[in-house]
Amino acid sequence: MPSSSSNADFLQQWRYALAPYNLGYKLKLASQLMYRDFLERLEPYGLTPFHYLVLCCLWEEDGLSTSGIADKLKQLGATLTGVVDRMEDRNLVYRERDRDDRRIVRIWLTEEGKRLMHVLPAIGAQTINKATDNVPEAEQEAVLKLLDRIVQNFL
Asked: pTM for this structure?
């Protein structure tokens, strides 16, 4: 049976790959903590962070197709369909078949969905500000660039 010191030596060489020290674990933890904070802030509006993401896409380009939103968010269509169903029930969006290609379903903002554009980004900023408190802007930009590169490695 190997000694605990040899186990420690062996594991030390893999420390970068072990939880809770590795990048994946720390990204997951940070994501979960930010998600929880943002979810609490959205609760009075009856929304989830995923609803917010869909709204952000539509605020930038109203009338996107379901697949267009899924592409922007790197999501599977089935997941998005249920979210859009609930958003439609809340009168935030409505669906309409494309005039030129009936196979395409476009998602449009309702007046309520448009109104939230003037409310929700400030709430999202509160979570981001909490997460980046005491983190210099240059470091924030460096982290965003690094995360973009990591994401690209998997696409």
From this structure: 0.86
